[in-house]
UniProtKB/TrEMBL annotation:
UniProt signal peptide: none
GO cellular component, one term: cytoplasm
Gene3D superfamilies referenced in this protein's UniProt entry, alphabetically: 2.30.30.100, Bira Bifunctional Protein, Domain 2
Residues annotated as domain BPL/LPL catalytic: 24-163
Database matches in InterPro entries: aa-tRNA-synth_II/BPL/LPL, Biotin_CoA_COase_ligase, BPL_C, BPL_LPL_catalytic, Transcriptional_repressor_C
Native organism: Phyllobacterium endophyticum
Protein's name in the database: biotin--[biotin carboxyl-carrier protein] ligase
One Pfam family per UniProt: BPL_C
GO molecular function, one term: biotin--[biotin carboxyl-carrier protein] ligase activity
Recorded catalytic activity of this chain's protein: biotin + L-lysyl-[protein] + ATP = N(6)-biotinyl-L-lysyl-[protein] + AMP + diphosphate + H(+)
UniProt keyword terms in alphabetical order: ATP-binding, Biotin, Ligase, Nucleotide-binding
Entry's EC annotation: 6.3.4.15
The Biotin protein ligase C-terminal domain, residue ranges: 225-270
Length: 279
């Protein structure tokens, strides 16, 4: 089966450009924007050779994984557009619920098992600001990029990478893949569900007007609430207990003195071992 959009995505005017292999789906989407594309374009591939993660880190995807980038063009405020990462996380989690409803493994940041029909259900958790975890290991990542267009419109690219078939073993954090976890799902099936789930979550988001509801839904699937956390921010490590994300989707921790600290950007590490590694 090749890549395809859901009927709802097609009905709402979204288009698809699919590759077997690509350098970077985000780079292609940004090129399309600079060439005058009107947006509502998904760029997808089963292999990405020179993708990027946060802070310029390499994010290549082996064959059989999913690299998907959504180009949106409009008169966005950058602060509002930045919250599309939370829409993307929820959409991917919903898509995984739809295509991997029951598999044979335990999941969850706390290692707890959840059973449905005699099998444990695939339940991913959302790690602020842009990762999805399964069984405490990274399953997917999200990267937002933007470029200002000559007519004062902003092009936003929402990049989503999922370890479907293969996961990297040369990274400083635990990683996993759907195949390793026992899920029977390929990149094409997952993308079809993702393109459908995006429609619902972006409708709720409504240009930022529904951010409160998106925040509520995100928190219901958040990893590590109430856990010890270390956050690296510009070379400094802040420690405390992860309490929530605030109305602007900033990460909120309470330090040892009881002070609440709001963090707009940083690398999050949960637990005592991960906190030590944040140094």
């Amino acid at each position: 089966m090749g890549f395809s959009l859901s009927p709802l995505a097609q009905q709402n005017g979204f288009r698809l450009e699919a590759f077997e292999t690509v350098g970077s789906t985000n780079a292609v989407a940004l090129e399309r924007a600079q060439a005058g594309d009107a947006g509502k374009l998904w760029v997808v591939s089963k292999q990405q050779e020179s993708g990027r993660g946060r802070r310029g880190r390499a994010w290549a995807t082996s064959h059989g994984n999913l690299a998907a980038s959504l180009l949106l063009v409009g008169h966005f405020e950058l602060k509002t557009a930045a919250t599309l990462g939370f829409v993307a996380g929820l959409s991917l989690a919903d898509a995984l619920d739809a295509v991997c409803p029951a598999t044979g493994f335990k999941v969850g940041f706390d290692g707890a098992e959840k059973y449905e029909g005699g099998k444990s259900a695939l339940r991913v958790e959302l790690k602020w600001p842009n990762d999805l975890l399964a069984d405490g290991a990274k399953l997917a990542g999200i990267l937002l990029e933007s470029t200002q267009l000559p007519d004062n419109r902003l092009a936003i690219v929402v990049g989503i990478g999922v370890n479907v078939a293969v996961y990297p073993d040369d990274v400083p954090y635990p990683a996993t893949s759907l195949m390793k976890l026992g899920a029977e799902c390929d990149a094409e099936t997952l993308f079809l569900a993702l393109s459908d789930a995006w429609e619902e979550n972006s409708r709720i988001w409504g240009g930022g007007r529904g951010l409160a509801e998106i925040r509520k839904r995100w928190l219901a699937r958040a990893a590590g609430i109430g856990s010890e956390v270390a956050v690296r921010v510009d070379g400094t490590v802040l420690r405390g207990i992860f309490e929530t994300i605030d109305e602007d989707c900033r990460f909120v921790i309470r330090d040892n003195e009881g002070e609440r600290i709001r963090i707009a950007a940083g690398d999050v590490h949960f637990g005592a071992v991960a906190s030590a590694s944040a140094e």
